[in-house]
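Bumping with the actual sequence this time:
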Amino acid sequence: MDTALVSPEAVALLSRITGQKLNQRQLTPPVIFLAALVTVLMGVMFADGKVTDEEKQQLQAILDNLTPSESKLRKLAQLLLKGVKQHQVYKKLDQLTTLTIPLSEAEKLLVISFGYKILANTRGINSRETSYLQSLTNQLGVNSKYLAVLEAGFSGQETINLEALQQFHSFLNSASFQSIDPLFSNAASYILTELPAIPPSLGNQTVNSYSLELQQSATKIKESIQVCLNELDQAETVLNTKPKIAKLAKQEILEKLGECSGLYVKICNLDDKLKNQTIEQAKTSWQEWLDKLKEDLKEEWFSDVSLEEQKVEDKNKLARDYAKEFSQDLMAEVDNWFNDLIKLNIQCIDQDLEIILENLISFNQEITPDFGTHVINEIEEVKKNLYSTTEDFHDYFGGDESESDLLGWIVDGTGFIVGAVTSGIAGVFKFGGRGNDAPQPSIKQKIFEKGWEKFVQSQDEILNKIQEIIVLVIDKKIQSATDIAEQAVSYYEEFLERQGRYQEETEQQRNAEKAWISQQRQELEKVQKNIEVVLSMPSS
């Protein structure tokens, strides 16, 4: 797979499908392969306008087999299933082409093979969906001779072209995928085990063959050559931008540097101001928020559940469960309030970083859109993480409820509340009392009353702790913002130094560099072709 062929359109498409803001670095070979695989398999399933439960199960089984349990790839596969269906990407060949451009022919054949796998296990190879796969094979540029192997193999035909079968096995030899990612070698093995094995008589024929170890070495060398070719492409891009960089007005660069340096200093000086400002807002808004929170929670916790509670045998356990639920609800509400407070006060940092980002993008467009993308991507990442305050809040309070200081203040390990409530459980349900006894509050209501009482008693400690966390969080946000702003300043400074060097270079020197790059590329491509011959042969 050539990830250099991943286009901005592919990044935008996968961001839309998954509902996540992705960048080019995140589109790794497994991610691209999974996206193409899910899209094609969904296309096979919807080819006749209806999807059976059996097809859904087959698709899920394939994805579960290829992705480790609880892995990010497993979670990504589920996002892809949902997004591809929602946006009907399988109906749009131009979008499917965008996803599959970086795939090698072997990887494209793997995708097509899984389509036949689903058909073989559900509707049968001769179904209408087969025409969809045939059309797709032509669209992706996969040699159609392999379709005959797939159709014959998955339909259990006794007659099969042995030469084509041997070529198919060689083409999808899992060893050639091993160094890319286990996902690919697993996928290749998955398909090959479903197809007929190469007869021993054919394997013993006099053909050029290479050992498995040699082919594995050849695969690694091929990958190294591709890295070298990519480096040459990058060197050529830099070489072609040199004249543009040399001709840029120095005053323009100095102005960009000056503005960026000013914003860097401004962000550095925001530290104490933002801390004091946020803490003051926390103090002044705390009581009003507390009053509103009590009313909101009370409405939820005072719902009539007496009949349901009477059916529960272990009232003590019920009380403990309620106490835990109350503490979780309270933690979530404090969390949300804290997040809103932080977000409100860090907007000025975000605005300053946005100016730096827009200036960089505008500046780089004058040279080439890809120039300086590493700094741009890092600024975008910092801007996104500015608002990730929930994670910080839980980190500082302690993620485990049993270890959380805040939860300890709220419910005192739930013991205080549960003890106060369970002592009156008999009264709640009038055990042993007369039929005309006045109804008592439910366990749930009493948990709320005792829990809120404990929370209010601890509110000064909680507010003090929140102020400490505000200082820690603001420090973290300021640090990440100043670090990336400093990188942007360094970028302009290095650019000035680079421009000075380029202005001293002669046209003769640049022509010599172009010739050297071209010569190295030709030699590497020649070696690469020889390696392709080795990999195309059956292993011995």
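The tokens above came from a reply further down the thread. Residues 398-414, 424-436 have pLDDT under 50 and may be disordered.
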